[in-house]
From TrEMBL:
The keyword tRNA processing does not apply. It catalyses: 3-phosphoshikimate + phosphoenolpyruvate = 5-O-(1-carboxyvinyl)-3-phosphoshikimate + phosphate. It comes from Cryptomonas curvata. Belongs to the EPSP synthase family. It comes from the Eukaryota. Residues 1-279 form the Enolpyruvate transferase domain. It is an enzyme of class 2 (transferase). The lineage of its organism: Eukaryota, Cryptophyceae, Cryptomonadales, Cryptomonadaceae, Cryptomonas. This is 3-phosphoshikimate 1-carboxyvinyltransferase. Its EC number is 2.5.1.19. GO terms for biological process: amino acid biosynthetic process; aromatic amino acid family biosynthetic process; chorismate biosynthetic process.
Length: 279
């Protein structure tokens, strides 16, 4: 049940050029409910043959191995930035240079696309950005660097930092600092708005919480640049003084579960008044 893997592998599968062969992308019951339609629609319109094995719009999908054409591809990226990353990762191996143009002015969760572009640059692929919703990818293939360091997971770092915020203690997360390309690395500055002291440098982030019981609500916050951290923020809001409204996270309904609904239900079991909004 990994949407990231399914969408990245779907992109990579399109570059395989073996007539008569195909690749099937599938998963468990929940994975077979998760959206793939915008990505599949874009690839089909670009000339690829992709079949749904069960219900339309979700895995399993069968990708027929005919190679990825170059040219211009149009795609919607309002449900998941992973559609964009999946195509970008495949594009240097297309039959000709490929230009990906988004139907919207700005994709959702853009920092994750920036991570993809940064990694591609490290592997020798310079993606052009003539506008905010266009990606021009040369047909260069990849060149392995001598060393590639994988950053620590900024989303996972939100949990120990939240412990500091709740208890009034101090926590340092190494390897997630101001040089991180991950959107969730900015989560520490949400904690600052809630009354924490934050120190962040290139090598790590340190958070010291206010005295226990004095955490304050940040009010209304747009978490679209760091959607995966919204659950941590929701728990902190439950123990903070005041009411918090989190917006910009509508895509969290189509993850491994409906994360918004689950947070409302589970916080409710703890006596917390929480309700679901459109975004």
């Amino acid at each position: 049940n990994s949407g990231t893997s399914a969408r990245f592998l779907s992109g990579i599968a399109t570059v395989v050029d073996r007539p008569g062969a195909s690749v099937v992308i599938t998963g468990n019951a929940r994975m077979r409910q998760r959206p793939m339609k915008d990505m599949v629609d874009a690839l089909r319109e670009h000339g690829l043959r992709i079949d749904y094995r069960e219900g339309d719009g979700c895995p399993p999908i069968e990708i027929h191995c005919q190679g990825l054409p170059g040219g211009t591809m149009s795609m919607s990226a309002q449900i998941s930035s992973q559609y964009v990353s999946g195509v970008l990762l495949a594009a240097p191996l297309a039959k000709a240079p490929l230009s990906l143009r988004l139907k919207e002015d700005k994709p959702i969760s853009e920092p994750y696309i920036d991570m993809t572009l940064g990694m591609m640059k490290t592997f020798g692929v310079e993606v052009g950005r003539p506008s905010g919703n266009q990606y021009d990818v040369p047909r260069t293939g990849y060149v392995n660097p001598a060393l590639f360091e994988v950053e620590a997971d900024a989303s996972a770092s939100t949990y120990p930092l939240a412990i500091a915020a709740i208890t009034g203690g101090t926590v340092t997360c190494e390897a997630v600092g101001c040089d991180s390309v991950q959107g969730d690395a900015k989560f520490a500055f949400l904690l600052e708005k809630m009354g924490c002291t934050v120190r962040q440098d290139a090598s790590g982030t340190t958070v010291t919480g206010p005295p226990a019981g004095t955490l304050k609500s940040p009010g209304e916050i747009d978490m679209e640049p760091m959607t995966d951290a919204f659950m941590t923020a929701a728990v902190l809001a439950a123990v903070a003084t005041g009411t918090t409204r989190i917006r910009g996270v509508a895509n969290q309904r189509v993850k491994e579960c409906n994360r918004i609904l689950v947070m409302v239900q589970e916080l409710g079991k703890c006596g917390v008044a929480a309700r679901e909004l459109e975004d």
